[in-house]
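Service request form, structural biology core

Requester: graduate student, group of Dr. S.
Request type: structure prediction, single chain
Budget code: on file
Notes: please return the result as structure tokens.

Sequence provided:
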Amino acid sequence: MKIRNEKYWNSFSNFFKKLFNFFSEITPTELPHDYNVSLSFDEKGNPYPTIEKTIVFYKLISNHLPEITNWPEYKELRNNVILIGPYGQKWEDPDSSQFHNNYIPWLFHELYNKSQKSFHLDYSALREKYLLLENAIYEKEWIINYKSPLFNIEIETEKFDVGSNLSIHKIPQKDLTALFNVSHRTPGVTPSFYSPYIKTIISSDLAKKKEEPDSTPEVIRNNFVAIAATLTLFKRFPIIHGPIYGVRKNVWTIAQGIFFSNLGPVLNFPVNSVTLLEKEYDEVIQFYDRYKNVLESSNWLKIASERLIQYGNRYDAYDKLIDIMIIFEILFLPSDSQEVNLLSAEADSLKHSRLKSA
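Core staff response, request fulfilled:
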């Protein structure tokens, strides 16, 4: 990628080089510290807590702010900086509060981590981070990577491409950690309790226009539900997918991080799992393609598919019986029957209300 704003880049580069050099001469006892509790996983995927001593970067900057603001490098960057909010909107910052409390500390922290947690700045990481900042300013579309854990199915290979922009991966440890850390802050999202069983994750990229909210698009929801339903039917075993979350890939903003869709808690989790064999991949793709084509033209099958996913998530046996009876009713009634039309209208109403709330 090519740098498009030379003034911003030069001031950005000069400032952070000066900042890292300045703190490389500070004795460790002068650095404000705290202890961060996070989750790690053993070879079997079992979680255990870890405690790490970390630098509190916003305090570090705040403690030295009077000195930093007198640097010519600081003044140059302050004149050229363009602050971008969570959806791509430009932020006005007349009192420099965002610049001091968010922009500098967060970038400093990320560059520190990219520099092997040292004050010896990695210049390639500096350029990479700046280009992400520029993309947030100048790109019209942002790329969001959406993911959802599959709680109870494994695959033989590292990756299974279901479509051109839809794949199933063996879940990396960083995704397990992300699921755990967010679950403590997000009511109803508790996949971390099942971490020993989560072996795979669905992944898909989607472009969104800048300044649009990051709510999970309906197409992603539909694709992930269709994958879970396809695998359920193919393996004849209830496959459960968890909450959908997204991470921005090609941009960096002040309001950075992981965001979850509101799918609610996992109600019932089977500890047993199945394995999708590599020799079955082509059959699954063919099954999925036919299934998706029918879903696009058949509201009644879409309702049955969603009920199938609900069935897999139910805890109460009576609720499971109701789901399965509704599925049979939908599948065996004529497509133009009054009952199916009523269920279709209710599903459309629910879809529109969900989109409006998002």
